[in-house]
Amino acid sequence: MSDRPVLAVTLGDPAGIGPEITARTLAEAGPEVPARGIAVGDPAVLRRAARACGLDVQVRAVDTWDPEPAGEGVIDCFDTGVVGDTELAWGEVYELAGRAAIAAIEVATHAALDGRVAGVVTSPIHKEAIWAAGAEHLGHTEMLGALTGSTRNNTMFVVRDKKIFFATRHVSLRKALDQITEQRVYHGIQEALTALRVFSTDEPTLAVAAINPHGGENGNFGDEEIVHIEPAVRRARDEGAQVVGPVPADSVFHQLLQGRFDGVLSQYHDQGHIAAKTVDFDGTISVTVGLPILRTSVDHGTAFDIAGKGIADHATMRSAFLAGANLARFADRIRAEYGS
Fold it and tell me: What keywords were assigned to this record (predicted)?
């Protein structure tokens, strides 16, 4: 048996590009990678994707998380038995595809909760498909929270080993501004510091981004910094945390890359996303923190328009898998911190 930890890699929506980018990624993952991957889904779906990509690989159906290594040119797939040999048209919304995507997430998550795998790497799912299958969740994060019983679900972006966090996420910019309060920013600081201690260093330094140009210019360009952000930063510092800010957003991410901080708390979705993806679009990885399991993910959708054509770029999935492999060593710390 291999002594490398195992990552469960879900195929995502069978009609999207998830199976293709998974096939390419696992076909490339040699013994030098510090973890081995097992795909989760229907083997027939993965075989079809491999053919579409022109890959000379064998897909082996398995029903255990510690199969004997089969050697080069073989991808193991933990069979969820949902789609079977049914061939779904590429790029279409299917209730069956939604069920398959949900089943893969459930199987992989339970394996991680039971300690049979070190973590989960997720391919993109299609919201309409999972809703057609009866899911009540907006997406992966909410589904994983329900499966693990966690209410501390936050997103950590990792780019060039630097971490970016978010005080608000999937709301309009106008709503995000309304949601910025001292308590929300303080909570975001605490969650970011906890994640940095779990995934990085025992004594992290966190920068908190400003919202307004030039950090508000003492209230002349907006008072969110004075009313909400500065008090939250001061409160955290009074408790002994190494927190600085608010730092103007046009310089804080540059300073992060220069190594001044271990992480940045951005105030809204695009503030952090634009910075990370401009630095390295394919290398920006999403890690869901707050769960009692390790979960990394691509940060793109199912790309129905190119599904089945064998042209989907798997660079982001490769980065997500490699990040999961490198973070697998923190599985016990993740469980200890977020499992209660």
Answer: Metal-binding, NAD, Oxidoreductase
Can you name the residues that pair with 154 across neighbouring β-strands? 289
Mean model confidence pLDDT for the chain: 93
What's the CATH number where 186 sits?
3.40.718.10
Q: Please write the tens of the pLDDT for every residue from 174-211.
A: 999 999 999 999 999 999 999 999 998 889 999 999 99
**Is the preceding peptide bond at 246 cis, omega within 30 degrees of 0?**
yes
Q: Is the dihedral of CA 209, 212, 218, 223 positive or negative?
A: negative
Task: For residue 281, give the nearest of 255, 318, 230 by alpha carbon.
Answer: 318
Residue 1 belongs to some domain of the structure:
no
- Do 146 and 165 share a domain, yes or no? no
97, 129 Cβ separation under 8 angstroms: yes
Domain stop point among 226, 261, 276: 276
**For position 31, what pLDDT does the model report?**
85
Residues of the chain above pLDDT 90, percent: 78
Question: Is the domain of 41 the same as that of 134?
Answer: yes
Domain encompassing residue 330: 6-155+282-338
Please determine, for residue 25, whether its predicted confidence score (pLDDT) is greater than 50. yes
Residues 147 and 19 in one domain: yes
Q: Which of 273, 140, 289 has the alpha carbon at shortest distance from 200?
A: 289
The reply to whether 147 and 28 lie within a common domain is yes
Three-state DSSP state, 317: helix
Is the model's pTM score more than 0.85?
yes
Domain closes at, from 224, 255, 276: 276
Residue 304 has pLDDT above 50, yes or no: yes
User: What is the bridge-based pairing of β-strands 162-166 and 154-159?
Assistant: antiparallel
Query: Which residues fall within 8 angstroms of residue 239, CB to CB, at 6 or more apart?
Result: none
∠ Cα 93 94 96 (to 5°): 155
Q: What is the pLDDT of residues 66-86, one digit of tens each?
A: 998 878 899 999 999 999 889
For residue 1, pLDDT over 80 is answered with no
